[in-house]
Amino acid sequence: MAAKKGGRKKSTGKKYGKAASKRVESAMRRRKKGTLKSGPGGKGGKVKSRKQAIAIGLSEARKKGAKVPRKKGGRKGARKKSS
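Below the sequence we write its predicted structure tokens.
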């Protein structure tokens, strides 16, 4: 018998829950209407980008505790160039 290669186990099932889907759908509708705003508390400008609307919808879903995968790693602040 051949030995199995080590690695990550592939997860089965859906990545996103129904609640997350609903939130993104809602955000897309608000973008189309022109009422979706960016920034904390919606204090920013109007969102025109489709990608940004999706990101806002997923973020809202995360806050409500819906099944949404974690954000990809990376540091929050901008990287400083060392010289």
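Helices lie at 18-33, 50-63.
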